[in-house]
Amino acid sequence: MATTRETGRTGAEAAAGLLPDADRFRWLLGLVVPAAIVVAWHLLVATGVFAAHQLPTPLRVVEALYGLSASGELWGHVAITVQRVFLGVLLGASVGVVLGTLTGLSGLAADLLDPLLQSLKNIPSLAWVPLFLLWFGIGEGAKVLLIAVGAFFPVYLNLSTGIGEVSEDLLEVAEVYDLGRVESLRRVVFPAAVPSLLVGIRGGVGLAWMFVVAAELIAASEGIGFLLSDGRVLARPDIIVGSVLLFAFLGNLSDLAVKEVKNRVVVR
Amino acid sequence: MLADSDVETDDDEGRPDGDATTETERDSEPTTDPATDPPTDPPTDPTLAVSGLTKRYGETVALDGVDLAVGDGEFLAVVGPSGCGKSTLLRVLSGLEDRFEGDAAVGGVDVREGGSDAVGMVFQEPRLLAWADVRENVALGLPADVDRDDPAARDRVDELIETVGLGGFAESSPGELSGGMAQRVSLARGLAYEPEVLLLDEPFSALDRLTKREQQDHLLDVWAARGTTVAMVTHDVEEAAYLADRVAVLGAQPGTVETVVDVDAARPRDRTDEALLAARREITDALGL
With a CB-CB cutoff of 8 Å, which residues 212-251 of chain B face chain A? Predict the structure, then answer.
């Protein structure tokens, strides 16, 4: 309202300059509530409502992260976590694409595999951890495999459904124009399933971040999840909160990246 | 059906001429032929030949003993009430239904044994690939032995896009086109296939009246220029009479050919041509409207 009244007063010139600006900076509105929370957080700690050894002030968290990054320690943790997520997604999504394509195209494969995979997807990430430790030890392989399990299911489920639900109308077009099996897959079925695949990858990346925490909390000597548990051992709540915020930031960043790819590829 | 012609008809179009005129015209049809076509039915050596075609879906009989013959370069329209199996007929001819009784052949080859390969189809909806541009959509219809990356193939596609009046839209995506334009892309795709017979399944039924007329004239231009054999299904009597050389009238379930009406108006046709009005009356009579 204030803006409207002001533009009214300063005339057309100001209105012309102001309105596009208002649209361009609209995304800043999304920062208002988080900023308010940070302020409230600071006040609650500063006035002693929360004890500082349980919840550090926002400034302490920033200082802790800055200290870690200045010493170079932080970047090692971030790099190894990002690498695990990347490799895990790559592996999980690849297997998801193969099995999703198989069950999407072949009724027999769907009958054989789908019931099994549908029930496996309900196993919580932490439940896999002891088994993976037992099977694959505590090396990188176990962590990447665990993350791959997380990334696999959304990719598999979405692609399989996407391929199975390609419009019958378009398949008839492919048949009338004698495209043949290979061409009809290449020109009709796979392009039609690309949006479903990207929805799956987006879900898979999200789950990969959940699974990387599970992997790193339990058996790791580096990574953001390790930093998190290390903060607990050292009784450093600033490091704990800093690690949580790092996860939030990186998870968000990867989600935005996949979303951006989706927006560019998918024609509505 | 002709015997019932003195029964009052309720054709939706106002009609200036009386019954007497119609009668004389109709009587003259089987014997003399004022238009360019030689006496038509049935064509010897037809491009499209259907005999005793019966198609069942479970207990439902969609088509019952249909006989049809379409000569080379001829334009046949098939009209009938909803649910009479018009679309089923085209699905059989295009090879989308391979289980039926009787015979259906294109260029002398049974549609179950590859005859349907010589058929192109324009569906009721445009059915375009939403992610591909107009050029790619038209190129989808190119015969399998044509290399799509060959410059000659590309020129051919661009020429077809021009032919259907969409020059300048080759890079547009289907979402940017109007319904009429999208349906013309679908027509160009059918033509790219260079079919012996082009099947049209109520291609203009979703369009408004004005666009529909434009598209009809446009189709006639393309047909005249390319000499393709056309079989078109429609429920629009006016459209059938205006476009077709002959109109096959199907009865309600199960679909059987009630009669085949010759449309003896000279081309290019005028929509108010007496002969068209006569044909329309004959078709509506046969439909029992």
Answer: none
Length of chain B: 289
Q: How far is B22 from chain A (nearest CA, A)?
A: 41
DSSP-derived secondary structure for A69-87: HHTTHHHHHHHHHHHHHHH
Residue A219 in any domain: the answer is: yes
Q: Which residue of B has its CA nearest to A166?
A: B129
As separate numbers, helices (DSSP H) first and strands (DSSP E) second, chain A gives 13, 0
HSE-up of A150 (CA within 13 Å, CB side)? 31
Per residue in B52-74, pLDDT (tens digit) is 888 888 888 888 888 999 999 99
B132 at interface of A, judged by CB pairs closer than 8 A: yes
- Given a cut of 50, is residue B35 above it in pLDDT? no
Give, for B198, the enclosing helix (H) or strand (E): strand B197-201
A40 and A145 inside one domain: no
Phi first, then psi: give them for residue B64, nearest 5 degrees. Answer: -130, 100
For residues A83 and A161, membership in a common domain is answered with yes
Domain membership of residue A56 (yes or no) is: no
**Number of structural domains chain B divides into:** 1
Q: How far is B232 from chain A (nearest CA, A)?
A: 16
Got the DSSP string for B43-83?
PSS-SEEEEEEEEEETTEEEEEEEEEEE-TT-EEEEE--TT
Determine the distance in angstroms separating the CA of B35 from the nearest CA of chain A, rounded to an integer.
Answer: 34
Cis peptide before B268 (omega within 30 of 0): yes
Cα torsion A32, A35, A40, A41: sign:
positive
Residue of B nearest to A186 (CA): B140
Distance between CA B282 and CA B75 in Å, rounded?
Answer: 18
Tell whether A6 and A97 lie within a shared domain. Answer: no
Inform me whether the C-beta atom of residue B152 falls under 8 Å from chain A C-beta atoms.
no
Please indicate, yes or no, if residue A57 is contained in any of the structural domains.
no
| pLDDT tens, position by position, A168-195 | 999 999 999 988 888 899 999 999 999 9
Structural domain range at position B54: 2-287
pLDDT at res. B8: 38
Q: Are B219 and B187 in contact (CB under 8 A)?
A: yes
The answer to whether B25 and B278 have CB atoms below 8 angstroms apart is: yes
Residues A180, A229 share a domain: yes
Domain of residue A195 covers: 62-265
Q: Do A176 and B119 touch (CB under 8 A)?
A: yes
More confident residue, B26 or A159: A159
- Distance, CA of B239 to CA of B184 (rounded, Å): 17
Q: Which helix (H) or strand (E) holds B102?
A: strand B101-106
> How many CA atoms does the CB half-sphere of A263 hold within 13 Å?
6
